[in-house]
């Protein structure tokens, strides 16, 4: 989720600007072993790992800067078309997301192994990649983190900083913790939700180190990586499509190849050739769009648009899954909420100056972070009459709850009064959507349909999730010192149908879209890429980003995207003997 973020983007703080090309004319060549489309969360991992071997030449094409998309009107959410931001900049979404570091359940990955027939995607086989990606870091306030995470499940040498919150909101956190004691049956304390069995409530982990954002740009494109002569990164280069398909195959089993990547720089089009592989890392919106503009997709759609079909691959852009987010706010009788900063411009400026100078204080966290919960529907939930349990296993959650010491409308115009909020996400959705092109112009936005709450199961489940939030703040400790005040919406006096209607009008996307180029077993008649991430029917063409996850994990997708890319780097090195 793109959480309201107080963490200032410090993209270039550790990125040497020296080896980033800002002009195509300065690139020494347009032929490389590997051309990576997109310098985002995944693309920079590949750029860094593949160029560890100095005989390998790599070009990264990055469109940058950030821009806006809008979804199609969401039928399941009262027809609203939501803004849909994607991180078109170095670091991609890892440079603008809410910094959540959540891996998902072991069963999410075991299900990927099952859906692909490749045990390499199982939790046990992916855990080493989580550790390789991660550098566990002290929080900005240096508080004692014993009992707040389990060191056995964390890396200490990787490129991406991970830490728990670095500024205390003790009164609010105290109530959350006390509830895990008072209602321990339903809301148990969880020491570390990133160890494979996430259920329970514990301290949230963030891709933050030293009070600053850690992104794939700062972590993987360090100045020493950027100074490698075999790595070129071109900015302001927006890819339109793949070109020069070699279609000479005589048998359908013989793979096709694209020789080049066409991109726009300024007002001109250029082509960069890949002698080994083209790697699409343009994200779940960009990658399927580029493939469709290249003539790879559902032939019916391509034909309707007049795009010559290179390969009919009907699953391209389909099977998108996304998380719906909603939540509730309560007034509180306390000054220890973020509103205290928003109410008082002098205090706000002081807090920002503190962060700017010492990387400490309330600006060190996103959201700002405190705690997170992972919960399941009751086993006898009426939602299960609508659809079988979509979660990957009994240890995986249906819900995420973000505990926030501020109201949901903190970025509204005010006035601000002390508020807390519990944000709810349905993290095992049944709904599916799509990303399909609607124009022959590769620079026009595709139709983005996350399918939000389009299946009734998801709306029913969300409604039950809101009841769980009420139960949570119903624990006795919230009444102490008249701490908890009135809720922003009186769910308690609504009928079940009214709560479902409320959910449909008060939910939005989590920006966790995946699945638009999903993996399936080798030879399967559906799916877009094989378990080694090669596009079906092609040689020398891979997709390495969140698009390949066949189902959204019960987690923010940043961590999963990093490990997909880390494993992909090994698969590619293996294939080419690098
Ligand atoms: C890229 O490949 C195309 C088609 O094979 C060729 O015409 C073009 O000269 C190549 N460009 C470079 C820079 O090698
Ligand atoms: C996205 O679009 C909205 C509405 O047009 C605008 O207010 C906002 O500034 C844009 N954000 C970015 C990052 O371009
Ligand atoms: C996936 O799980 C199903 C159901 O448990 C099982 O029948 C199937 O054989 C599994 N497939 C693979 C490739 O492991
Ligand atoms: C979507 O994925 C499922 C497996 O999760 C598969 O059975 C189905 O065929 C896919 N649909 C499309 C349109 O690719
Ligand atoms: C909040 O701060 C104001 C002004 O400092 C003070 O008058 C008020 O008593 C405080 N409220 C609480 C609940 O601490
Ligand atoms: C942040 O710090 C820089 C110097 O490190 C200074 O130039 C800038 O004015 C500071 N900004 C604020 C808002 O304090
Ligand atoms: C899709 O394209 C058609 C034909 O250009 C156009 O009429 C329609 O408005 C487009 N749909 C959207 C949602 O942009």
From TrEMBL:
<feature type="active site" description="Proton donor">
    <location>
        <position position="512"/>
    </location>
</feature>
<feature type="domain" description="Glucose-methanol-choline oxidoreductase N-terminal">
    <location>
        <begin position="283"/>
        <end position="297"/>
    </location>
</feature>
<keyword id="KW-0285">Flavoprotein</keyword>
<feature type="binding site">
    <location>
        <position position="239"/>
    </location>
    <ligand>
        <name>FAD</name>
    </ligand>
</feature>
<dbReference type="InterPro" id="IPR036188">
    <property type="entry name" value="FAD/NAD-bd_sf"/>
</dbReference>
<dbReference type="GO" id="GO:0050660">
    <property type="term" value="F:flavin adenine dinucleotide binding"/>
</dbReference>
<feature type="signal peptide">
    <location>
        <begin position="1"/>
        <end position="18"/>
    </location>
</feature>
<protein>
    <submittedName>
        <fullName>Alcohol oxidase</fullName>
    </submittedName>
</protein>
<keyword id="KW-0274">FAD</keyword>
<dbReference type="InterPro" id="IPR007867">
    <property type="entry name" value="GMC_OxRtase_C"/>
</dbReference>
<dbReference type="Pfam" id="PF00732">
    <property type="entry name" value="GMC_oxred_N"/>
</dbReference>
<feature type="active site" description="Proton acceptor">
    <location>
        <position position="556"/>
    </location>
</feature>
<comment type="similarity">
    <text>Belongs to the GMC oxidoreductase family.</text>
</comment>
<dbReference type="Pfam" id="PF05199">
    <property type="entry name" value="GMC_oxred_C"/>
</dbReference>
<dbReference type="InterPro" id="IPR000172">
    <property type="entry name" value="GMC_OxRdtase_N"/>
</dbReference>
<dbReference type="InterPro" id="IPR012132">
    <property type="entry name" value="GMC_OxRdtase"/>
</dbReference>
<keyword id="KW-0732">Signal</keyword>
<dbReference type="GO" id="GO:0016614">
    <property type="term" value="F:oxidoreductase activity, acting on CH-OH group of donors"/>
</dbReference>
